[in-house]
């Protein structure tokens, strides 16, 4: 055993210990006034209740999938699935908890110190708990799976022995367990994202549609009955949802590389390309160790901000500093990892077996290409959605012509914004492939996510600050406090754009790597790897696959709209039936609104979430592996487009509205008809960018993973083959 | 020479003679009052002026493309390109002309007779001129190309001789000329659709945004300065645009089958699959003859309506009758054609050479599958967009919650509606392939379009009636007349939904057939035909290709919005600067509005139209044939989705608004806030369904055709290969 593997458990334990330290550190801070405490507690109770509901559904789904998996594939995979689901669920739960503790403490710190630097630290400390849990739990689970199932497997492979299951099918246990682990993470991520996304946007839209548009009261006004539900939504959607989303991306990127390496090994054995078990071990080790050093680097980066004495006046600079330190340290340590792992290998062997054209540093270069691609894609997202640039300014100006042209212009902006990221993605694939073969493509995905702990920490800081602002408003703290939390919040919006670039970029690359593994899984080792689009089955699959993300997105939008309409009805009812709410003499019934959001989200999340799991498997059992191959490629391509389209259109509408609110267009500020039109745009964009876009990232990976797991079975047993045999 | 080929020229001449007869028949009818005559003349002058402008641009583009083609490919193809462009331009021009004569005569007939049946006949007679021109000119051009370049070529092929051009590259003249012919039709169609689409929607949106929303005057009100431009738009967009669009679809479907047959012949020769030159001739003949009998059948169908004595009171029934007679006769005659052409062939030979699994009738069955698929896809379009079904009713009800939820719900509806047509399309591909091989897939496309003359006649009847209503309104004819034209108009909307199903379905299938020919073109004959999506070049191409239709759609939407905004400004200016317009004492300046639409459309149409021609060629010369293969599949899949999405979302918004206007939702009729919200939805949907959707159909075919033409060159000369050679 290479001792470098111990780095993985070291990094995981270090991160989780650091997370615990920060958790306790935040929790022992004072909550502030009684009113603040009361509101915070209402939010916390609401969030916990929802997560409990949601996890109850999850347990059932995971149990069913695990049992099916154990029966038709292997019990190893089923255990790994449960471990993966557990890790992801833990990360989401802890992150949600700390966010509901940190929010009120952020407002209180602002109230007590009136110092932006000190306040930022509290919010970031809270966010770092989520970030560290994502990295820590992901690696902990991977380590466990590796320790249980990863040993001695290379020897097994040399004699081409494999596990035979109840149905008499042969499996490669290690790749199956890794796929199972990744699938477990994906399922939880899907439910957390979809459930949380519906919850948060239903509450948000419901609150806005009546509050802002009809009653003309500001956001987070305590007179709005939906306002607590709205704040609960931030914690379950933007914190827990985001956390388990990025955990699954992280796991997906790492494991796609490992699984791919395994299949390349089998291929190499059949074709005598010179890949030894030793080299296989190295290929398995590299992404694990790279992730481990990345996590350690993120601990350093996070600590560099938390233990800094003199904070600047600009939170954006401080937060970027933490990310840059993390990313830079990751790259340096990663270079060392590449040297330690691949150093001394023969260039020619690396080239023939793996397609490395730049020697031992090839996978490191591929990872760097991934990071660069992620940064550029993020920059384009910023270009299209920030008010510093023309597209969003033009969109804001379109609001002067009314809501129809605002929508039209936003749709056009989102559609046009797809091209640049796709060119970067396409170029990245070609480059990474030429440097380090298909393994390089998955390393590019891993590179994008290697410092995910830092980006999640910064991303989580956003909704915590948003909540802190809400609490400040509801507890009627003075304007200066609200100003501090608003500054914190707006910084969070900017950092989110770059995060989206990494999410969609890494999702696409990891899905492609998984797709290659999928093809390896059912093609005889040694044959050319082909997914031929001219095959009518593959072609039909690609067309149906292309429609899947559209169906999925449409269902999600409709789910949000449905839940939001119920919320609108309830808020309208309360305004009508409880007199005195609007003049502040009567207290609205927050609890009913929270219940409506919860029930709506739980009720609506099941069908779209299960779609991604069931459709590829069902299609596989009916039409066979070629069809599903086409299905995967069609849905991946269309998901990439829809994710970019929804993310950028939604972001631009949101910021276009803010641009108008700052009074940048003379004579058309807050409350003008132009502002009303911009609010319509923002409301339309909300579910697109916060529910649909992020869920699509998971959608493509869950489909690839579940297909990869199931193809061993449906390649042997499917209806079309059966009919063919009966006829022929 | 098989004498059946004479059927083609017979059908073409018959159709064109019938068209001339109907043209003269319409023209000699009286125009009505002086005011009607004056308005009609303004519309006619505006439309003619625009078409002249547009064709000037077209002449330049076609000349440039032809010269480049003559130099880098063959002069044969350049000549065919010019013939194709000429045929398409003629059809568009004649159709536009007759529409501007027929419109006023329809209103006058309604005024004089007050008889809906008699009025329908005038409108349909006008529409039939467009339909007959589409079929007639398309086949006339094909016959000319076949007579000039199609003779003796099979002999050439047997000795595998081919034409050698200036660059020393070998070409197959006949397939090149057919591709050139199809490309010529496509280029004109693209400009007519894009230019006309921008024109009509800019005028429409401009007129509505100020007229309906701000000044609260009804549609087609003579006080609205943009109203003549709006009516001109119907003629240049919905008539000329639609006509050349469907002409290019028709030609694309027929020629894709012929080109494919040619490549299959070469393949068969290399692999000794038993395809003789005789069988090749049959495969070339079949789509031509099928199209010819389809055209003859349509003449019968059209005559059956025009010469019918007792019209029913329901125009829908009469029009459907004409279509059913045409389709039914086409199928019966087509069966005869299959018997005459493939009859007596050995089943085993047909099976091994072409993949026919049902003997001589295989291609006819494939065509029938295509027709069935088109009907079902159209039925789904109707399900999603008609107020008779739940989706649109639900959308209409969402308007009660304001414009944001109207938009959200419409987006969801459009996205969800992609799945069903894609399943039908995928199923159709699998079935057609299993019945008649890849040739069968293109025959399915041809089947969908075989009675295109009848559908275009009915489709053109729509905008003529729409215009007739506008003229009635502007000439202040009494309500009864308007009622008749309104009935005619609403029937047109229903028939349009099914037409869309055929357009996108046939477009997708024809594009796929062209893609296969594309692959044959650069792969050595006799090798397996593979477009491997696992190749990183193909994969990168697919991702970039997926973004292309989004970019294209975004540009089109923006172009419409830009032109519409200029129109809004002008209408507002006139209302302000010319007092008395609104109370009817002063006449608005219609001419300036017409000029704005014209200039806007001409200015904005160039970039998106050229995108489709230039991008695949440029990518080919840089990245080579594999990349472009990926590009084509990516853009085809995404175009299918976007075309369905935009068509159905736009249609549902439009009809949702109409549903509210009928007063179906109690207490929320015309003028209510719900109606205002529905109007916003309709305005957003207009450019989506009438500009973006139809243009996407052409987009995928023009890209496939231009790639097919250019691949002979860029397969040999491209940057990546060059760099590879320099490095290696």
How would you characterize the overall build of this protein?
- The structure is a homodimer of 728-residue chains.
- Chain A is mainly alpha-helical.
- Chain A has 21 helices and 2 strands.
- Chain A has a two-stranded antiparallel ribbon.
- In chain A, helix 3 (75-113) packs antiparallel against helix 16 (479-522), helix 12 packs across helix 19 and helix 13 (403-416) runs parallel beside helix 20.
- The first copy, chain A, is globular, with a radius of gyration of 25 Å.
- The first copy, chain A, starts with 5 loop residues before the first helix and ends with a helix.
- Mean pLDDT of chain A is 89; it is low at 154-160.
- At the A-B interface, helix 6, helix 13, helix 14, helix 16 and helix 17 of A face helix 6, helix 13, helix 14, helix 16 and helix 17 of B.
Summarize the structure.
Chain A has 728 residues and is an all-alpha fold.
